[in-house]
Amino acid sequence: MPDVSVCRELGHRKGLAAGLAAVLEGLPLHQAAPGGLVAVPRRTAPADGVPVPLPLVHLEDIEVLRIAGPVGSGLTGTRAAALAAVRLGVLSNLLELAVERLSRREFAGAPILERQLVTGEIADLVTETEELTAALERADDGTPPAVSAAWHARLDELGWRVAMFFGAEGYITDHPARAVHVSALLADVCVARPVDSVGRPAPAAPQEAPC
């Protein structure tokens, strides 16, 4: 399986589907289906899976399937870190698009990109993504599910912050920012959830979807 830096580069250059393919390589699909659902690149979707109708996900060349048979624990350790790295790559690409967009728009006669609040937020996002990358590079197969879940929850928050730079465009299905919403769904479907004190999986947090 590619390492964190390779997965981040895949997400940045080729998008979610290419990165997801690398994350799942060599893994039985049921292991990435803790709730009986699995997300796969559409070109590799098995014929015996039952598609879930999610048009937004399809726009990223990904399919969510219901699969029969045993349910796995979900992505943990290095696999969960690899998926997080893919999401980071997608996020960094969107942040670059946001910077380009803001540099062309003006407020009170000056580019929005030059406003202190905007530059500060961009700097914070860059710092936080690099800190998360460093954490992912330290991951191993013994990393607890609670830690993996925390990485992906952090990515959800960072994604919403980047999407805000696009205004209403960030919630339109034909805009590249849709990858933020799809990447959050991938984590919700595939990543192992921490368990509570009696061994039950923690409930997934509800996600807002674009229109």
Task: Report on the architecture of this protein.
By secondary structure, the chain is mainly alpha-helical. It is 51% helix and 8% strand. It is built from seven helices and five strands. It has helices at residues 4-14, 16-24, 55-58, 77-104, 116-137, 145-164, 178-190, and strands spanning 37-41, 50-51, 62-66, 106-107, 110-111. The strands form two sheets. It has a three-stranded antiparallel sheet. β4 (106-107) and β5 form a beta hairpin. α4 (77-104) packs antiparallel against α7 (178-190). Residues 196-201 and 203-211 have low confidence and may be disordered.
Topology:
Elements: H1 4-14, H2 16-24, E1 37-41, E2 50-51, H3 55-58, E3 62-66, H4 77-104, E4 106-107, E5 110-111, H5 116-137, H6 145-164, H7 178-190
Antiparallel strand pairs: 1-3, 2-3, 4-5
Secondary-structure element series: HHEEHEHEEHHH
| Beginning-to-end CA distance, first to last residue | 35 Å
Q: Any low-confidence stretches, pLDDT <50, length ≥5?
A: 196-201, 203-211
Kindly name the structural category: mainly alpha
Number-wise, the strands total 5
| Rg, alpha carbons | 17 Å
- Largest sheet, described in full? 3 strands, antiparallel
Overall 3D shape: globular
The helicity comes to: 40-55%
For the residues shown, what is the average pLDDT? 86
Strand order in the sheet with the most strands? 1-3-2
- Total count of helical runs of at least 4 residues: 7
DSSP strand content: 5-15%
